Amino acid sequence: MENIPANLISLIAFAIVMLVAMLLLALKNRFTKQIEALQQQVTSQEIQLVELQDLLANSQSQLESNQQQCSESQIENEQVSKQLEHRIKVAQEQFNSQLQTIEQLLHQQPEDKLYTRAQKLVELGADIAEIMRECDIPRAEAEMLLSVHRQKTAE
After folding, report:
1. First CA to last CA across the chain, in angstroms?
2. Which of 18, 101, 131, 152 could bridge 142 with an S-S bond, Cβ 3.0-4.6 Å?
């Protein structure tokens, strides 16, 4: 090595340094491009994140609006249900009242029919025993019917 001139060693060292510097520069450029690409991806993902956050906020707003509408509808349905229950109760009470009236009328009709039949028998000239037997009424009532009929015919 003592035979190699100092200039040649300097030149070789300079060439190696330049080669290393060029490699480092190439690596720097390559890493710079990768960093820029990664920064673009980060920026793109940040934009997507903001858009997703906006969509989430809109969805939450719509959800709250739908929940409010459902709540209002439920309250309205409950009110309508209570009104219908009240109307049904009133209608049932009216129905029961009318049913009782009909039942009372039905119970009264057999007696009315008996007296109407007794009146017809009196008009046809039946005697007290026949009226009592056919209409199942007491003697006093049969006599009263005959008496009323005689008074009407006498007038």
Report:
1. 175
2. 131
